[in-house]
Design brief:
The structure holds 2 protein chains of 2 kinds. Chain A is α/β, with parallel strands linked by helices. Chain A is 43% helix and 20% strand. In chain A, the strands form 3 sheets. Chain A has a 5-stranded mixed beta sheet with strand order 7-6-5-8-9. By secondary structure, chain B is an alpha/beta fold. Chain B contains 6 helices and 4 strands; from the N terminus they run E-H-E-H-H-H-E-H-E-H. In chain B, strands 2-1-3-4 form a 4-stranded parallel beta sheet, with helices on both faces. Classes of the chains: A alpha/beta, B alpha/beta.
Amino acid sequence: MANETRIAQISCGTEYSGVQGKLNEVAERSGIKLVYPEVELDNVAEAVREFGYRAKSPGLNLMIARALSVLDDISVVDGVLLLTCFKCAEGSIVKNEIRKFLQRETDLPVITYSTVDHVKEGGLMIRLEALKTLVTRKTLLMRTKQEGITMGVDSGSSTTKCVIMKENEVIGTGWLPTTEVVGSAKKAIDLALEDAGMKMSEIGAVAVTGYGRHVVGDEIGADLVQEELTVNSKGAAFLADRQRGEATVLDIGGMDNKALTLNNAIPDDFTMGGVCAGASGRFLEITARRLGVDISELGDLALKGDASKIVMDSYCSIFGIQSLVSALGEGASKEDVAAAACRSVAEQVHEQQLQEVDLREPIIEVGGTALIEGLKVAFEDILGFDIIIPPYPQFAGAVGGALIVSAFVE
Amino acid sequence: MMKVLIYPPNSLILADLVERMGHEAVVLMKQIAKKVRDPELDSPPINIVEEDLKRALKYLSVEEPSGVRGRVGLMIPLVDEAEAAIIVEDADPSFGCMACAAANDYIEYMIRSKGVPTLIVPYPYDEDAAKILVQNVTDFLRSLES
C-alpha cells in the first residue's frame, strides 16, 4: 500500500493478553501498518542505562530499547502507539516516561493505551484513526490561528453545535438538541449564520466533527470531516489559550464524557465514558427537573449548597436520584441537593475514568456541563487542580473544526 | 525418566542439559509452538485466547493485568505436568525469561509450592560459577534417576 501510515507498536503484554490479533485487524482496516522497531537483545541493557530507568520486567526494558531504536532511523515510522496492560503499575510508569521521551526527542505523534483482555474495538479504532489524522493532517493540526471566515459543525449525540469564526474570533453560534442528525445540523447552521449576520455563500470553508460527522459532512459538502478527538483538543486548547505545553481536556457531555491528555494541543491519550448516565450531564438534567429549576440554574444553586449534608448511597442515575429525593423528603435544601448532584457526577467521573489517564495541569473543562459552575467547583475540590473554563466551552469541537479548516481558505 | 520443568521456562541451555541427562524437559517453547500451530483465528501469531486467561483465574483475580493472566494461563499446564523442577534465579534475559516480573514471581512461587523435587540455583555471571551450576544441575538430575 503506497500511502499506508507506518506506526511503531511499542508494547508489553499485547500477545499474552490475546489482544494482538484485534489490534492487527483494526490497524489494517484503518490503513495502518504496525511495525516493531528492531532491537538486539544484547543492546537492551545499554538502552536501559541510556534511558535511565530500569524496570523489573524484561518486557518493559525491551519497550525502552525499542523506543530508543526509533530514534536511530526516525524516517521509518510516522507515529508511535504505546501499549501496556491496564492496572500494571510498572507498565504505566514506563509507558508514560517513554511518551515524554519521544515527545521531547521527536515530532512523532504518540498515542497511548492500556489494554485489557476484552479490548473494545471502538476504543482501539478511534485511537488509531486519531494517530492517522495526526500523521496525515499534521500541517492542519499545526495551525494555531484561525483565518478568513470558516464554519465548524459539531454533530454530537445530545446536541448539535455550530460556530462561525472570522479572523480568530467567534462571531456567530448556533446550538440545539440533536433530533434528526442532518436536520439538526442544518438548523444549527442557520442559527449561527443568523447570529453572525451572514449568508452561507460568505463562508470560506466548513469542517464537521462529532458522531454524525460523516452523514452531515456528505450532506452539506464539508471541506473537512474529522474525528472529535483531535478537533476537540484543538478547540479546547485554542479557547483556553493553552496551545503550547501539556494540558488535560475534560468534556462531560450529555450522554458520554471524555478526558483527553494533550501535548502542544495534540492528544496522546484519552478515556471515554458512556456506560453510565450517573457520570454524565444527564444526571444533572434529571436533578434540575426534580428540583424544578432550569439546568442553567443548577450550577449557581449548587455553589450555595453543601454536598456533605446529603448522603448519596449510589452514583447510579436511578438510585442516586432516589437518595436526592429522600433527602428532599427529609427537609434538605435545594441548594444542598444541587451541590450533592454535582459532587456525585464529579466523584463518579474521577473514580471511573480519570484514574485511567495521567492528568496534566491545567485542566480545561469543555462541553455544555462546563457552564455548570457547581460541577467545576466539585472537580477542583476532588482533584486539587485549578480548572479553566474557556469562553464558549460548549462549542469547543465546533471551534476546533473552524480553526483547522481555515487552512482550506485561499 | 522424569518430566523436569525448567525456569526460566524458555532456556535452551537448561532444556538441553535436562534432555542430555535422559529426562524430558518441560518447556514453554512446546506450549508456544502448540499455540502457533493450532488453527485459531483470534490472535496470531500467538493464539492466546480467552480460555487461557480464564484458566489463570483459578489462581489469580481479575484485578491482575491481562498480560500476567495470559502468561500464567499458558504456564499452568506446564507446572501441573512437572514431576521435578530446576529454577535459575535472577537469570539474565538472554538466558531465558518471561518478560513480565509479576508473572515471573508468581510462576516461581507456584513451582516452589508444588512440592516436587526442586533445585534452586543462582544465575552464574562468570565461567567458574557456570561450571558449578552445570555440576549442580547434573547432580540433581542424576539424583532423580535414583
